[in-house]
Structures are given as C-alpha cells and as structure tokens.
Amino acid sequence: MIGNRPSLVLLGAGGHARACIDVIEADGRYAIAGLVGLPEEVGGAVLGYPVLGGDADISALLGAHDFGVVTLGQIKTAEPRRRLFELIVRHGRAADPIVSPRAHVSRHAALGVGTMVQHGAVVNAGATIGANGIVNSLALVEHDVIVGDHCHVATGARVNSGVRIGDGTFLGSGCIVRQGLTIGRDCVVGMGQVVLADCADGAWLPIKKEMR
Questions:
Q1: What is the rounded CA–CA span in Å between residue 66 and residue 94?
Q2: Are residues 76 and 113 in the same domain?
Q3: How many structural domains does the chain have?
Q4: Which of 35, 97, 180, 184 is 20 to 30 Å from 41 at the Cα level?
Q5: CATH number of the domain that 74 lies in?
C-alpha cells in the first residue's frame, strides 16, 4: 500500500506507459510505485515516477507491491506483453481492469484482468474484452463483440457488432471491421484498413496506403 491505496508496478516505460499513467491517475484506485524499463531507462523517471529496475528485477518488485500491470505497447506481436502478463499472474499480482473515467464501458460488458480502457473509448453492451488488453483512445468496440486475451484495439479503431477476435491480435488506428466477422489469433490489421472478410490466424493486413 502507498497511503491508503494499493501500490501498482508498471511493466513497460516507453511511450504507451505515459498514456497508461494518465489513465491510472484519472481512475484513482491505485498508487503508482514505479516502472520497469530497459537497462538504459533504469534510474530515470516517466512523468515523475521512477524507473525502478529492469526485467531481472520484476519478481522482486512484484513481491514488494500489491499489483502489476503491463504498460508496454503492442503492434507486430503480442508476445512481449503476454510474457510480462504471465509473470504478473504467476506472482498473483494481476490488477483489476483500469478504465478511464472519460471512457464508457457498459455495465453489460465484461473486461478481463489487466485490461486498460483509455480516454474516450467505448465498449458497448454485451461486449467482452479478454485479459491484458488495450482498448486505446477513442476506439469503439460495439455490442456483442468478443475480443480475446492480449489484444490491442488501437486509437480510433471501429469494431462493429458481433465480431470475434482471437488472442494476441492487433487492430490498427482508424481501421473498421464489418459486423459479424471473425478475425483469428495473432493477426495484424494495419492502420486505416477496412476489413470486409474473415481473417485466418496470423493474417497480416498492411497499412492502407493513402490514395493519390
């Protein structure tokens, strides 16, 4: 505990961690103890919070604090986030979902442990987001969508009703997914893509190029 709030260690000290810190502060339930970063980041600070150690220090830091959350970003692969989350779970330190007060998550939706919903995002009724997910700023997850574990729905993405998304998939900024589709595990949907057909596991849809 720090004061009267549970202490929280952030695993990841890059750009995405800054956005996460802002959401955690706005949520207000946890006190940030510090971050875990790369060797060159240790000893520095992110938005005033110390980078306490590197990967070798994770177990000790989780043992010393109440909860941990993954604040590493995800684009090409979910593996680094998955690995860090599994460490948190093994130590029994998985945090409840953290939701910005400026997001809307329906009381009829469900969020998995370790998932973070950023400012301006909407998760509508009947939707389910798995564990260790990111629903990023201004993203929309419509009614009855099922998103697997370790997924990132990036800024401004639009996932229409009834879509099924497998574990580890990344949906890029501004992409649109037609209702009722199935997107497999470990897919990468590029920025601006319009997805009109099912995607097999591991599918890679590159960034939609600007028309000139």
A1: 9
A2: no
A3: 2
A4: 97
A5: 3.40.50.20
Residues 44 and 137 in one domain: no
Residue 209 in domain:
no
CB 43 within 8 A of CB 66: no
Put simply, whether the predicted model's pTM sits higher than 0.90 gets the answer: yes
Q: Are 18 and 46 in contact (CB under 8 A)?
A: yes
Residue 211 in any domain: the answer is no
Return the structure tokens found at 176: 């649109």
- d(CA 195, CA 173) in angstroms, rounded, equals 13
Residue 196, judged by CB atoms within 10 A of its CB (0-12, 13-18, 19+), counts as exposed
Contacts 24+ apart (CB under 8 A), 194-203: 201/166
Per-residue burial over 81-120, b if 16 or more Cβ lie within 10 Å, else e, is bbebbebbeebebbbbbbbbeebebeeebebbbbbbbbbb
pLDDT by position in tens, the chain (length 212): 888 999 999 999 999 999 999 999 999 999 999 999 999 999 999 999 999 999 999 999 999 999 999 999 998 899 999 999 999 999 999 999 999 999 999 999 999 999 999 999 999 999 999 999 999 999 999 999 999 999 999 999 999 999 999 999 999 999 999 999 999 999 999 999 999 999 999 999 988 665 44
- Are the beta carbons of 9 and 24 closer than 8 angstroms? no
Asked if the structure places residue 86 within a domain, the reply is: yes
